[in-house]
Write a structure and sequence with these properties.
Elements (H helix, E strand, L loop, with lengths): L6 H15 L23 H7 L4 H9 L3 H4 L5 E6 L1 H11 L12 H12 L2 E2 L11 E4 L6 E7 L2 E5 L6 E10 L2 E6 L6 H10 L2 H6 L5 H9 L3 H4 L5 E6 L1 H11 L12 H12 L2 E2 L11 E4 L6 E7 L2 E5 L6 E10 L2 E6 L6 H10 L2 H6 L5 H9 L3 H4 L5 E6 L1 H11 L12 H12 L2 E2 L11 E4 L6 E7 L2 E5 L6 E10 L2 E6 L6 H9 L2
Parallel strand pairs: 1-7, 8-14, 15-21
Antiparallel strand pairs: 1-2, 3-4, 4-5, 5-6, 6-7, 8-9, 10-11, 11-12, 12-13, 13-14, 15-16, 17-18, 18-19, 19-20, 20-21
Helix pairs in contact: 3-6, 9-12
Amino acid sequence: MNKFFKPMNWIAVLVLSFTIFSCSDDDPVIAPPIMEEEMIPTSNIVELAIASESLTQLEAAVIKADLVGTLSGAGPFTVFAPTDDAFIALLGVLGDDYNSLDDFDTPDEIELLKNILLYHVVAAEVKAADLAAGDVGTALADNSVSVIASGNSFVIGDASGSDANITATDIAATNGVVHLIDKVLLPQAAVEFAASLQDIVDVASANDDFSVLVDAVVKTDLVETLQSAGPFTVFAPTNEAFVALLDALGSNYNSLEDFDTEGEIALLKNILLYHVIPSQVNAADLEAGDVGTEFTDNSIAVIASGETFVIGDASEADAGISDTDIGANNGVIHVIDKVLLPQAAIDFVGSLQDIVGVASSDDNFSILVDAVVKTDLVETLQSEGPFTVFAPTNDAFVALLDALGNNYNSLDDFDTEDEIALLKNILLYHVVAAQAKSTDLAMGDLATAFPENSIAVIMSGDTFVIGDASDVDANLSTTDLEATNGVVHVVDKVLLPQAAIDFVNSLQ
């Protein structure tokens, strides 16, 4: 029901109702014709706002910004009208110095308020049925809002990244149409103004995509740190990034509440500090290299990726940057799609997972995991151990398949009993039936779980390489990925026992 019907219309309805229901049972009930003139609006957009109890803040803002004449003009206009609750929410975001519109009292603040209002005005009549996904120019020059499909409806996007829901549509005026929305739309100038009033915690708290991050900051008692002078650069993981981390941790970690011991909370705090650089680095300042973080002695890596950058951590999976340069008065925020993990977190994750779990959680080992499943070695590598596994990456397996020729394009081509038995022995040749961390490695032969077949630990400069029955050694690219039943070292080559060498030779 349109809340903007004039009082006289309601009186007419009441009189009609009284007349109809006071007729005797013998009297025919005849509904009078609805006159088309009753549907013609008689109020302009400003008059509609004045008559509405839910648009008092908008009315006051229009008067304060001296836009009454503009919005009373011929138009036609489309106005996305924020409700009083939307204005109250905006004032709450701006902080203690902005308790009402009266606090916009300098010429610059009033001009900003005017531009915010113009950002809600389209210089054409766009009814709900006319809305289509895309950018729509507003009366604020060079600034557009975005109409975004959302299920069977639309939301309105602005420069803040937080969309406005349309709560009522097609409220007709003599000079256009009004749609009610539940958020004040903010052009870029307003976003920058709000940022100048807010610290990093405030900015994150105002964005629903960071609610888990904010909860983590509160839980680890880092609010005061991130509200201090800084400046800081924060690589801020989204809620989806935290959900992915919790999924990787397993069924015992369903929310942040499951970090409930002193050790777990300390780890969570260090993970958060690992996302913070103790200086302001805008997107234009990013360059490839290692960058120290607030987690002492732990750096992240800025890695060139095409025309942009990704962020590397102690894991093998990099974080993509989805948004940059969200300003605050004590630094800047860049949005990332993954929780960055320092080595301490990698070790913690490993302590929760067996060797198969560690490999399964890293996409770089997907072929290795498929091979373990194919050869029925899952139960073996999930047993108590301890084991040391030299784990070949996907690239290493691809190189082996290339060497085998056209008949071996994937693991599916190992389809005879003998081929599957050979693949199983190749995998066992990567397993040592004892835990040997990188600090325990020493030159010499290591017996493997493939009986009577050893690999060789060979000194190479300041590190080691791993020798097999071939003439090509494997490099260690990452070491000491801990698991509940051992340790994993990453190698860049599939290790080949003599039986595999003989098999390769039989194909040539």
